[in-house]
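Write out the 3D structure for:
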Amino acid sequence: MIAICPNPYRDIDLKLTREAIKLLEASGYETCVCPVFSGPNDDVIPKDLRACTLEDVSGRITLAVVIGGDGTILAVAREMPDLSVPLLGVNLGTMGFMASLEPENLGLIVKAAAGEFTVSPRMLISAKLEHEGTVIYEGTALNDAVIHGYGDTIYLNASSDGTRITTFSGDGIIISTPTGSTGYSMSAGGPIVEPEAGNIIISPICAHTICSKSFVLNADRVVTVTAEKLHDRKAYLSIDGIVSADVNKGDLLTVKRSENCVLIADMGVKSFYETTFEKLTV
């Protein structure tokens, strides 16, 4: 079974979704529609498409075709009960670094359903936030974990395996995977890292110092970030762009490589370098 995971707010009238179903079913594949950013009973999903959730079809699907932008792929990765199922992105977003196909390449999903793709493993990071020794949040990120002020400058101390890396005042800090290096991290001045690499990237956000730079660490490092001197200022933890918890003075964020990874189906239409050049020079 092939899961088709459309963002109905990108795939207007689910035109591409219907085309994908037609292509796959004409080739003998069973399909199911697992919408993203809407429930299976929402009005944006017509009843004839027999919408369900990814949890409903866990263990039965061999490929998830994600129709939307990078945010849609991130959402599907969060919902996947079985991370061993490859994700094939069809880009309808602004950037689409994680998507292997553009809409004009949709016909290639039949080859993908037959397993004719290269698996691109992407590391995940695990994030744990503690307040006075009590864990208040745990989760994983495909892109990044971010501590950011609510419009206020905050003071942060970042360490790797217990050794201080940087201390600064600024808007916040990004702890990114290689996949996330072309997202918020890059906008904050961080390096572009090929997505299959094993690294943790630390990038300050608008630091109030002229010598604050990004650091690229080995993926086996354990990164800790302490929020200091917040006083009455507020900050928050964001995981893959989703605000997950408030951060208070003295709270400790621990980030390390996850034991799991996300599998991206690469159809070989364009290399990461070609995609990066095209997306970032327009």
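Residues 15-26 form the longest helix (12 residues).
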